[in-house]
Amino acid sequence: MCGDGGRESQGGAIAILNPVNTSLRSSNPRSQAELRFIVGENQSHTDRLIYHGANGRRRDGFFVVIHEQGDLTTSPEEAGCFHKFKFEADASGSGSMTEMRLSQPLEISPGIGGVIGRRISIFDDASMRRRSAEGIIGWN
Question: What is the total count of domains within the chain?
């Protein structure tokens, strides 16, 4: 990111998720959600995610698709599917933050096996028809 955002790096990766419904978008950063990919001792992989809801809302039970490509100008179908899962929160988390453990660790790197630079879509339903937010996964 360019400029001084006033935010320190926390390690791992992050996706800033913007609503796909243009009427819900605003210049207010509170309309954006975040999905953080947390690294532990193994700094190259993550098996823990933290979702920070938009407008301070707690959220659970949605579906996440990490696409093969990072191009936001194509349709989600054209972007392909690298990895998908249902976000089911653990008991941990507070306020607008929910946390979950992944059954399969994800590599935090760019390139063929990693998630950095990939497009990410959030769907409200298992049929993957109602997309609510999207973004690009980047370094945190």
Answer: 1
